[in-house]
Thioredoxin reductase (NADPH)
Amino acid sequence: MEANRAILEKVKVYGKQESRDAYVIRDFLNRSVVTFEWVPVSDVDTLRSNFSLNVPADCNLPIVELPGGKLLFDPTIEDIAFNLGWISKPKQKEYDVSIFGAGPAGLSAAVYAASEGLRTVLVEREAIGGQAGTSSRIENYLGFPGGIAGADLAERARQQAVKFGAEILHIRKGIKAQFIDGKLHVDLTDGSKIIAKTNISATGVQYNRLELPHEDKFIDLGIYYGAGSSEAVLCANEHVFVVGGGNSAGQAALNFSGYAKKVTMVIRGKDLAATLSDYLLKRILKTNNIEVLYNATITALSGETILNEITVTDTVKQTATNYSTRLVFVCIGGTPNTDWAKDTAIVRDDAGYLVTGTDLYKPPFLSRWKSAFTPAFLETSVPGCFAAGDVRHNSVKRVASAVGEGAMAVTFVHRYLTEKHA
Ligand SMILES: Cc1cc2nc3c(=O)[nH]c(=O)nc-3n(C[C@H](O)[C@H](O)[C@H](O)COP(=O)(O)OP(=O)(O)OC[C@H]3O[C@@H](n4cnc5c(N)ncnc54)[C@H](O)[C@@H]3O)c2cc1C
C-alpha cells in the first residue's frame, strides 16, 4: 500500500458521463494521486461489446477495474480504498498522539511527530490532502516557484509521514471523543477505537453550499463543491461557472479556462481585488475566455436529472438571466468540521471553530473558561488536546500556516507529555 501510488498500474473507471457515483470515484482517485483512466460508456452492453469486459449483463455502473483485473461494481469509496489495500485497523493499543484530518496541518503534524519518535496515528475520513488536495495548483507555497498540484503536495507529505513511521488510517472518521484518565478515547466510524495521550485536531473546514432549492438533486450532477480539479479535462467546449471570488475560486477559474470554451465567475461583490491575490487577479483579467459577473448570485437551478440551466441575478440591477450549463463549481468557503467536539469540554466559537491559547481568556470565551491550567498557543480548553490549521478560531486559512501550525502543535505535544506523562 505504501508504495508510491502515482506509479501504480492504471486503474480504470467505467461509467456514464453524467453519473454522480462516477464523479465521486474520479474525485477520490484524483485527490489520492491514483493514476486512472476514465472511460465514459452509455450502458453495460456497450462495455461488454466494445471493451470485451467480461461483466454480467445485469451489473451496475460505475465499474472500477483494479490493477490485476479485479472488477468492483458500483463500489463505495471504502470498497475502493479497501481493495487498494489502504484500510487497516489501529495497530497500537495506545498512541502518544492521535491526529484527526490529513490536510496540510494534519500531515505536517504527522511528519514532525513521527520523525521525533512519537507513536503517531493519523486518521482521515476522505482523501489525503484536505482542501489543499483539491487545488489544481498552489503557487504561493514556499519552495515551489513553479507551483505544485495540491494532490501532489499531499502525496509527498503522506510518503514522508509514512517513512518516519506514522500510521495512517484512511476513510475513517472520529465520531465520538471522550477524555478518560487524561487520555483521549475516540470511537471511529468502523467501530474501532483509538486511545492517545494527546490529540491534534486538524479537521479543517467543509465547503459551504448555495442553499438553493433542488441543490441536493444536482450535487455531483452539475453542482460540485470545491475546485473540481479532476473535472477540468472533461470541460472541453463547455460553459463552466465558478461561484466565489476567493483564491480557490480564482485558481479553479484559471484551471478550467485551459480546457473550457468559457468560464464565468459569479461573485457577490463589486470587485475581486478585496478577495483575490493580486497575481491571480491579473491573470484572470488577462484571460480571454474568463468572464466575471459582479454583484451576482445564482438564484435557481434546473434540469431533469442533471443540471442544465442556472439563473443568475444581478443584485444591483435586479435582473435575472438564464444560462445553459452542466458544470457549476462552488468555492464559497466553509464551516469547520467540529461536530465530534460538541459533547466535549472543548470550547468552540459561534461558528464552531476550536478556540485555543490566549483567545480562551478573552471575551466572549472567558465566561466559559473553567480550568486552572494555562493553555499553550495551540491548546484547546482541554489539556493535551491541540488544534491546528483552518479548524482553529482566527486561523489564517493558508497551506503554509496550516503546515506551520501542524509542526508547532507537535512541540506543544512534547511539552505536555514531558510535564504530564513523564
Ligand atoms: C480549491 C482550493 C485552493 C486553495 N489554494 C490555496 C493556495 O493556493 N494557497 C494557500 O495557501 N491556500 C490555499 N487554499 C486554502 C488551503 O488549502 C487551506 O487553508 C488548507 O488546506 C487548510 O489545511 P487544514 O489541514 O487545516 O484543513 P483541510 O485542508 O480542510 O483538511 C482537513 C481534513 O480533515 C478531514 N476531516 C474532517 N473531519 C474529520 C474527522 N472527524 N475525522 C477524520 N478526518 C476528518 C477532512 O476530510 C480533510 O481532509 C485553497 C483551498 C481550496 C479549497
Remarks:
- The chain has a mean pLDDT of 92.
- The longest helix spans residues 399-420.
- The two ends are 35 Å apart (CA to CA).
